[in-house]
Every structure is written in structure tokens, then in C-alpha cells.
Design a protein that fits this description.
about 550 residues; alpha+beta; Cytochrome p450; 4-stranded mixed β-sheet; 3-stranded antiparallel β-sheet; 13 strands
């Protein structure tokens, strides 16, 4: 058979000439080359779709018992991906739950996503010691956080978790509470200028306080985010967090190459911000390492030598634990320590800021809850502002614990968590039966939706702290604001103590007023409000 390649340089004519030699193509007479090219493209797409469908056959069979939208071969539920953004995520989640239930399978291109609000499956997955690899979307944070505790898996994750866990021992948390106390006092002082009965967004004040707290507890250094309107490190943390959160909910922006090609100026800005933060962290690490070595030379190992701040004691910080740790007999490198410190800076300020801001907003809308909490604060802490608040004092604020739990139920700071399966995941379920989710699947657990299921919480959209009081226990894995299992939030006790201190100081000093717009939740890496966190404040008459 001779196609006459040397006689016909036009590839389209050549293609159909070749096909024509295999059969009759008289119907192509009168069809333009553009139309033929389009037809060829359609044929190739159909063939590609069929090949992909055949390749997915085994995976599709394994999840055939799970409901979900119609997902054509190749493209899958592309219409869902195109509708998805931070503002629509929760609305779409509710829509799909009403259609398909709490456990769904969704195909997007060749990706199999399992959306789970099912407590049984969530418990089996989150409790597993095998399925610990985070969802690929977290790689957006990789340039900043590297292989830190949030992003690492396998041996590295186990080693780092083992090293860091002692940081949250009671004795060290007790020292951290001193920082919470001091920085909360500064926050209260700075809020005085807002306590005029007018509407304002409390987020910025809370964010600055949270940054000061996490910097001093994680790195043992002060960054004065509250004292100054602008500092290079604090500004870089806030701007980079906002940029990464924006990328988090965009499928194509999660791919570093596509982000670089489509937004080169933002890619450059992201790189500059990360360099600023990492340079600051490395500088602190080197200074802290040198100070520790000087102590060892002088045989003073107690870590309570005088600090650079006159009249204060040097406290243990996360950084000190990392500097004194080793893996297989070798100390951690500066870069390895930086990854963990940066991880704590990211997780320790953004999530707490979100949780506190939502809680203050709800308290402003519920005066009876606020008054009940104030009575407890005055009973436990008294009205003496000069008296330091201890960790034992915070432990006695039981009603406040219920308030915090209810706020975390309605507004979990991390609204979704995800896993990427490296092996098949076998599960048992009373609704869907026993099954297997194949390796390579992505499982998304919608914590926000789990916390608002009417089957678990009556009137789930109402703020009712009393539902968490003594004797009112929620079944495991039906309320998981700090995730659960081996990869739960290692700093949850830290966060709860910080929230208690901040709330106690603010509510004792100011009456929170229901002013401005209500919050409108949007999903990013951390839950936020599209309308901010608006309220009013008025200084209490008894202060």
C-alpha cells in the first residue's frame, strides 16, 4: 500500500487519503479541511475517553456502591469543578448531600474523589495508621513549609511528631500561658480605641495578637505585631497566607507550573514573601543555637538564664526543643528546624485567629451567653487586672469551654481535611455496606458539614453552648474541630488555652455589641468570613 507521502505534504489530506485507501470516504467530499480537523479531534477525544474509561473500570467497579453525580468518561463531573470556589463550596456541599447523602464518589478527569460526611468511614480513615498521606492540595504550601509536620508523611512525619509532642507537656504549656497573659493584655489595651460603640472588624486585632503569641512561643522572640502598624515579618506572614489561601480553592492554581505561567507577578511576589519569612526564621534559629551552645559551655543547662528583655526569664520555646533534638544521633539541620517553626507560625496564628474571631462575633449576637460567661470569669479570675492568670485558672472556666466548643462546632477553623490513598482502603459501613476505595483516590472529609448534621445536633445552625455542658457528650468523630487520629492537631491544647485567655480578658473588659453584618463563611485553607467579623464594643461600667 502506497500513501504517496512525498506527493502530498498536507497532513490532513494525507491522513484521509490513507484512510480512503482502506475504505469508501465519498461522504467527505465537500467537507472543508477545518471541519475535517475538528472531526478528527472529536474522534481522538472519544477514543481517549474510551481508553480512560477502560483504565478506570476496576476503580469504578470498586466504588459502584457509592452514590454520586453522572460522570462521563474523560471529563467526569467537570461542571462541578468549574462551579467550585471559596464562596460556593459550602452551598454546593449542602446541595450534593441533599441529593446523594453523606458519602459520595465524584470523578473529575482521571481523579476519583470521595466526599465524606459519614462518621463511620471518617473514624476508620482518620484512626488508621496506614492512610496518613495528606491530600495533594496541601502542596500549595510546600514552598513555604517544606517537609514540616503538616506536609510530611512516612518516617519523617513519625520522627518529627515524636520530637515535637513533648513541647506541649503541661510544664511547658504553663510557661506559654504567661505569654498568652501578657499579649492578651496588650490586645485589650489596643481594643480600647475601638470601644466606642461603633462597628468595626475585630479580625485584624486578633490576628496581630495571635502572631505575637505564636512567635514568642514557637521561636522565643518578639515580633511586636500589635505594637507596630507594620513589621516586615508579620506583614509577609499575613500576605503570604492570603495568597496561598486564594490558590487553595482553585484547581489549576494548585499546580505550581500553571500558577507560574498564568500569574508570573504573583509567583514572584510569593517567592519574595517566603524568602523574607525564611530569612527571619533562620536568623532566629542561628541566634538561639548560639545562645544554647554558650549555655552548654558555661554548664548552665536550665534554660532560665536572663533573656534579652530586661527583667524577664528565658522561657522554653518550640525552637529550643528542636535545637536539642536529634534523629539517628544527628541534630536537626537549620532547614529542618525552620520547616517546623514555619509550620507552627502558619498553623498557630491563622487557625486561632479564625476561631477567636468567629467566637467573638457569636458572643456579640448572644448577650445571655456573654453575660453567663462574664459571671464565670469574674468568679474565677476576679476583677483585678494586675493579677496574672494561671493555667489552673483557665482550667476552671468550664462554661467558657462549652462556648468555645460550640463556636468550633459551628465554625471549625479547618473546615475540610483530605487524604490521598497509597493503598486500597477497606471499610465497613452500616448504610453503604462493606467496600473498598481504591489506591490513588482522594478522600475529602467535610468537617464543616459533619458538625451541622441535624441527626447529631438539633438546630445545628443555632449557637447553643449548653449542648456541650456536663453530661452532654457528642459521639466520637461527629465533632472533630481538631481532626482526629494520629494526624490530629498537635497544638489543640495550646489553642484552647490561648482562646480562653483572650476571651476572658476581652469579655471582662468590654461588652460585645451586635453591630454590622453577620458572618458569611467561605472555605479556604482556614475558614473565613466574606463579610469580615463585625461587631461593636463598649467598656464595661464595672471596670
Amino acid at each position: 500500500m502506497h500513501f504517496g507521502l512525498h506527493l502530498n505534504p498536507n497532513p490532513i489530506r494525507f491522513t484521509f487519503a490513507a484512510l480512503g485507501s482502506l475504505g469508501s470516504f465519498d461522504w467527505l467530499i465537500g467537507v472543508s479541511e477545518c471541519e475535517m480537523l475538528l472531526l478528527l479531534l472529536v474522534v481522538l477525544l472519544v477514543v481517549a475517553g474510551w481508553i480512560v474509561h477502560l483504565g478506570q473500570a476496576d476503580r469504578r467497579r470498586k466504588v459502584a456502591n457509592l452514590p454520586g453525580p453522572v460522570c462521563p468518561p474523560l471529563i467526569g463531573a467537570l461542571q462541578l469543578a468549574l462551579r467550585l470556589n471559596p464562596k460556593t463550596f459550602l452551598e454546593l456541599g449542602r446541595e450534593y448531600v441533599s441529593r446523594y447523602g453523606h458519602l459520595q464518589r465524584i470523578w473529575i478527569f482521571n481523579r476519583l474523589l470521595i466526599m465524606s460526611g459519614d462518621a463511620e468511614l471518617n473514624e476508620q480513615l482518620l484512626s488508621s495508621q496506614e492512610h496518613l498521606v495528606k491530600h495533594p492540595v496541601y502542596k500549595v504550601l510546600g514552598q513555604w513549609l517544606g517537609n514540616g509536620l503538616l506536609l510530611s508523611d512516612g518516617k519523617v512525619w513519625h520522627q518529627r511528631r515524636k520530637i515535637i509532642t513533648p513541647t506541649f507537656h503541661f510544664s511547658i504549656l504553663e510557661q506559654f500561658v504567661e505569654v498568652f497573659d501578657q499579649q492578651s493584655n496588650i490586645c485589650v489595651q489596643r481594643l480600647a480605641q475601638k470601644a466606642n460603640g461603633e462597628t468595626f472588624d475585630v479580625y485584624r486585632n486578633i490576628c496581630a495578637a495571635a502572631l505575637d503569641i505564636i512567635a514568642e512561643t514557637a521561636m522565643g522572640t518578639k515580633i511586636y505585631a500589635q505594637a507596630n502598624e507594620s513589621t516586615p515579618y508579620a506583614d509577609a506572614v499575613n500576605e503570604c497566607t492570603a495568597l496561598l489561601s486564594w490558590r487553595f480553592m482553585s484547581v489549576y492554581l494548585q499546580v505550581e507550573l500553571l500558577f507560574t505561567l498564568t500569574h508570573p507577578h504573583l509567583k514572584w511576589r510569593q517567592t519574595q514573601l517566603i524568602r523574607t519569612m525564611q530569612a527571619f526564621t533562620i536568623k532566629v534559629i542561628e541566634q538561639r543555637r548560639q545562645a544554647l551552645e554558650d549555655q552548654q559551655k558555661q554548664s548552665r543547662m536550665t534554660l532560665d538564664t536572663a533573656d534579652e528583655d530586661v527583667g524577664s526569664k528565658r522561657r522554653m520555646a518550640l525552637l529550643d526543643v528542636l535545637l536539642m533534638s536529634s534523629v539517628d544521633g544527628k541534630p536537626l539541620t537549620n532547614d529542618e528546624i525552620r520547616e517546623e517553626v514555619d509550620t507552627f507560625m502558619f498553623e498557630g496564628h491563622d487557625t486561632t485567629t479564625s476561631a477567636l474571631s468567629f467566637c467573638l462575633h457569636e458572643l456579640s449576637r448572644h448577650p445571655k451567653v456573654q453575660e453567663k460567661m462574664l459571671e464565670e470569669i469574674l468568679r474565677v479570675l476576679g476583677n483585678d487586672r494586675s493579677r496574672p492568670v494561671s493555667i489552673r485558672d483557665l482550667g476552671e472556666l468550664k462554661y467558657m469551654e462549652s462556648v468555645i466548643k460550640e463556636s468550633l462546632r459551628m465554625y471549625p477553623p479547618v473546615p475540610i481535611v483530605g487524604r490521598k490513598l497509597q493503598t486500597d482502603f477497606k471499610y465497613t459501613n452500616s448504610v453503604y455496606g462493606d467496600g473498598v476505595i481504591p489506591a490513588g483516590s482522594e478522600i475529602i472529609i467535610g468537617i464543616f458539614g459533619v458538625h451541622r448534621q441535624p441527626e447529631t445536633f438539633s438546630n445545628p445552625d443555632e449557637f447553643i453552648p449548653e449542648r456541650h455542658e456536663d453530661g452532654c457528650r457528642v459521639a466520637p468523630f461527629k465533632m472533630i474541630p481538631f481532626s482526629a487520629g494520629p494526624r490530629n492537631c498537635i497544638g489543640q491544647k495550646f489553642a484552647q488555652l490561648e482562646m480562653k485567655m483572650m476571651l476572658a480578658k476581652i469579655v471582662r473588659e468590654y461588652e460585645l455589641l451586635p453591630m454590622g453584618q453577620r458572618v458569611e463563611c467561605v472555605v479556604n485553607i482556614v475558614l473565613r468570613s466574606d463579610t469580615g467579623f463585625q461587631l461593636g464594643m463598649r467598656k464595661r461600667s464595672n471596670t
